[in-house]
Amino acid sequence: MTPVWDGSYRCTAGPARSRHQPDITETVDELRYARSVDDTLRASAERMRSLLVAKQAPPDVFRAALTSVPALERDAWVDHVLELDPPPEDGPELPRGCVPYLPCAVDVLLRVVDYARVQGTDVFVDVGSGVGRAAALVHLLTGAPAIGLEIQPALALASRALTERFSALRFSPVIGDATVLAGSITIGSIFFFYCPFSGDRLDKVLDDLEQIARTREIRICCVDLPLPLRPWLTLASPPAPDLAVYRSTLLDPPA
Fold first, then answer.
1. pTM metric for this prediction
2. Which residue of 73, 85, 156, 186 is surrounded by the most CB atoms within 10 Å?
3. CB-CB contact of 205 with 178 (8 Å)
4. Count of structural domains within the chain
5. Residue 56 near residue 114 (C-beta atoms within 8 A)
6. pLDDT digits (tens, 9 = 90+) for 57-101
7. Residue 87 in contact with residue 131, Cβ under 8 Å?
């Protein structure tokens, strides 16, 4: 029987705030309220973790649980669910010109899923996947299998530890340079870039992805990354300062 998320993450109203300076009683009340919210967050995350381990959290259940969490708490909730520690320090393997790993915000990834129309039949490729957080989250939200390309071994090993904790994850971390590997991921249909690099490295990856786009339609999702102009790509998302989703047009019928 497929479980239905019961909306167990709920925040009750906190202590009423007055306009005068808070006294010590009010401060204690607010601290207790903050602790109760944190406890509720943790309990909700632990319940979802149990469902994932039991392989009882299909995408609709996971998304309902995630979106029931207040927006400002979602990143912490996901980290609780996936048992993610702070990422290791960047190592010497990070090439010159590449950006150190930073996790992408959960609400941005929700927009990626919606604007790119990610389906369970897609293959999501995270270029510069770090500890696997974005790839795992997109898989959990959509059912799409995910591949992560990460050049830093310590981060890729953290990704593999994530897949070992949750055997139901259809996520394959790959250690290597995306400028070498991206063009060989011919099963990929959605390629995600959270500002991993720019310049010549980005040009090389786009040139390689063009060859894949000659065989299938692909979508390229860019977060905080201005994409060099490519005539075979068209914007497929609403204009936004932080996110752009492009669709390849090489297989479109002639106008």
1. 0.85
2. 156
3. yes
4. 2
5. no
6. 999 999 999 999 999 999 999 999 999 988 888 778 877 778 888
7. yes
**57 shares its domain with 149:** no
Contact 190, 221 (CB under 8 A): yes
Residue 137: C-alpha distances to residues 8, 16, 65 (Å): 20, 36, 13
The predicted structure's pLDDT at residue 29 = 54
Q: How far is Cα 43 from Cα 10, in angstroms, rounded to an integer?
A: 11
Residue 218 counted as domain residue: yes
Q: Do residues 159 and 125 share a domain?
A: yes
The domain spanning residue 167 has which CATH number?
3.40.50.150
Between CA 139 and CA 122 the distance in angstroms is 10
Residue with tokens 């009340």: 29
Q: Is residue 59 part of a domain?
A: yes
Q: At 249, which amino acid appears?
A: T
- Length of the chain (residues): 255
**How far is 73 from 69, CA to CA, in rounded Å?**
6
Query: Which contacts qualify for 102-107: CB closer than 8 Å, 24 or more apart?
Result: 102/130, 102/194, 103/75, 103/130, 103/131, 103/133, 103/134, 104/133, 104/134, 104/194, 104/223, 105/75, 106/66, 106/74, 106/75, 106/77, 106/78, 106/137, 107/71, 107/74
Which residues share a beta bridge with 190? 124, 219
User: Beta-carbon neighbour count of residue 179 at 10 Å?
Assistant: 22
